[in-house]
Design a protein that fits this description.
Blueprint: H1 8-20, E1 23-24, H2 25-36, H3 40-52, E2 56-59, E3 62-65, H4 69-85, H5 89-99, H6 104-116
Antiparallel strand pairs: 1-3, 2-3
Helix pairs in contact: 1-2
């Protein structure tokens, strides 16, 4: 997993790729022109950078995903909890719920995740 943190613009680009990959570079250039108002060179520059950081792979004109959005988000969350809460998930949840009450549905979903943890 890469230690690289996506910036705002890179995140928007990555979301496009994560949503529609595999995608040809021609299709990606068109999509970035439409969605981000980017020129072809900007698309290729950002794509090259994110390939170098292990997010995507460009092979034979086709972009594929190496690191999924879920993997990236899980890694970032884990690092945030490690840095901000000494790795304590309960401390994170305690801090989070001080400002935001959980709905019954959210509580049930979290319980189901805890019950299923370690069984995968």
């Amino acid at each position: 997993m890469t230690d690289y943190i996506l910036g705002t613009v890179e995140s928007r680009f990555a979301d496009i790729v994560w949503t529609i990959a595999p995608i040809t570079t021609a299709e990606l250039v068109k999509r970035c022109a439409d969605d981000l108002s980017w020129k072809r060179t900007t698309t290729y520059t950002v794509l090259k950078k994110l390939c170098e950081h292990g997010f995507f792979r460009l092979e034979d004109g086709v972009v594929t995903v190496v690191t999924t959005k879920e993997e990236y988000d899980a890694d970032r969350s884990e690092k945030y909890i490690a840095e901000s809460f000494s790795g304590s998930l309960p401390a994170f949840i305690a801090a989070f719920t001080k400002k935001k009450s959980l709905t019954e549905e959210e509580i049930a979903e979290i319980r189901a995740m805890i019950d299923g943890a370690g069984r995968e």
